[in-house]
Each structure stands twice: as structure tokens, then as C-alpha cells.
């Protein structure tokens, strides 16, 4: 095949809507539908599929997560709940039905050698005088816990974050770190 004298070998390829060399972009609804997805949300769920296949939430737990998030946005006092992962079933669930409104009693409930996820809504007044109620997840990972359990919780951290819809994660490695939680929250508010 002979080439035309007008052809330039260094010319960039023309991009057409069907071209796979186009710049990366989010998948369109029609593309997702052709691929068997029903929405962008189900596509993003597929991305987290390895986490969601491994770890589970009961319907009761997801309902509690939602109620806690919605119910604490206007709270006058700090509110916290503690979650754990069942090592046998890999279900993420509340440790108990208690809602802690005192940071010291929360610290007393955290085990010395086992990680936990703590959802915390903490009303505070910023230096500007504005009231803020950050909703965060404390990723409690004591340095004394074994590697297997650390890996278990590390694998579930982002799934817990997304399911609980917290604003951010604060990592702590001892119950004493809770004494400075207000300062940590003010740093990022």
C-alpha cells in the first residue's frame, strides 16, 4: 500500500467519540447500561466490590448508621458509637447499643489490644465563634494489637468510612489520644 504524499507520519490520531484513545472520562449512563450496570452508583459499588464481598453490614446496622448520622447533626453534646468486626463472619457491627456522650467513658470502653471504629459527632465552637459539628470516624488502632487484626481493620476502613458517610478519618493509637480530640477536630474545621 502506498502512502499519499499529503499524509504526515507525525500527525496525532483523530479522536472520534468511539475512539478508545480519548482522554479518560467518567463512564456515561449508556455505557454503564451496556456493561450491565444500572447507574454510576452501582459502578462505584463495583469498584469497592472486593471490600464489600469480604465485609458485611446487616440491614439493622446500616439503619443504625444512618439514624446516628442524621440524629447527631444538631446535638449539643458529643456523641459516639463503637463498631467492631466479627472475626468469624467479618460482619461490621456495633459493640453495644450505647451512645457515649462523655469522652472519658468512651476512652474507658476502648480495648487495649484490639482495634475499633468509633463514629463521633462532636459539637465545638471555632475560634471565629461559629458552631461546628464535625462527624468523623476515629480509627482506633492500638500498637499492641497483632498484625492479623490490623490487616482486618485496615481492609475495612474505607468501606466503613463510605457506609457511615463520615467527613474524615482520624487515626488514634491509644485511648489517651481522645483527650486531644477537640484540638484535632479544630485543626481541620
Automatic annotation (TrEMBL):
Residues 53-188 form the ADF-H domain. One of its GO terms (cellular component) is actin cortical patch. Signal peptide: none annotated. Residues 1-34 are annotated as: Disordered. GO terms for molecular function: actin binding; Arp2/3 complex binding. SMART domains: ADF. InterPro entries: ADF-H, ADF-H/Gelsolin-like_dom_sf, GMF. One of its GO terms (biological process) is actin filament debranching. Belongs to the actin-binding proteins ADF family. GMF subfamily. PANTHER family: GLIA MATURATION FACTOR, GLIAL FACTOR NATURATION FACTOR. This is Actin depolymerizing protein. It comes from Clathrospora elynae.
Amino acid at each position: 500500500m502506498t502512502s499519499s504524499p499529503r499524509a504526515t507520519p507525525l500527525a496525532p490520531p483523530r479522536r472520534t467519540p468511539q475512539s478508545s484513545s480519548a482522554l479518560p472520562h467518567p463512564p456515561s449512563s449508556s455505557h454503564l447500561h451496556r456493561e450491565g450496570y444500572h447507574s454510576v452508583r452501582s459502578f462505584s459499588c463495583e469498584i469497592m466490590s472486593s471490600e464489600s464481598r469480604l465485609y458485611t453490614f446487616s440491614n439493622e446496622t446500616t439503619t443504625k448508621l444512618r439514624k446516628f448520622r442524621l440524629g447527631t447533626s444538631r446535638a449539643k453534646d458529643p456523641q459516639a458509637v463503637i463498631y467492631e468486626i466479627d472475626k468469624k463472619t467479618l460482619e461490621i457491627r456495633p459493640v453495644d447499643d450505647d451512645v457515649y456522650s462523655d469522652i472519658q467513658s468512651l476512652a474507658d470502653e476502648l480495648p487495649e489490644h484490639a482495634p475499633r471504629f468509633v463514629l463521633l459527632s462532636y459539637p465545638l465552637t471555632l475560634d471565629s465563634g461559629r458552631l461546628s459539628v464535625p462527624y468523623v470516624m476515629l480509627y482506633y488502632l492500638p500498637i499492641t494489637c497483632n498484625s492479623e487484626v490490623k490487616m482486618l481493620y485496615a481492609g475495612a476502613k474505607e468501606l466503613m468510612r463510605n457506609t457511615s458517610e463520615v467527613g474524615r478519618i482520624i487515626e488514634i493509637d491509644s485511648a489517651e489520644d481522645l483527650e486531644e480530640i477537640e484540638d484535632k477536630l479544630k485543626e481541620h474545621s
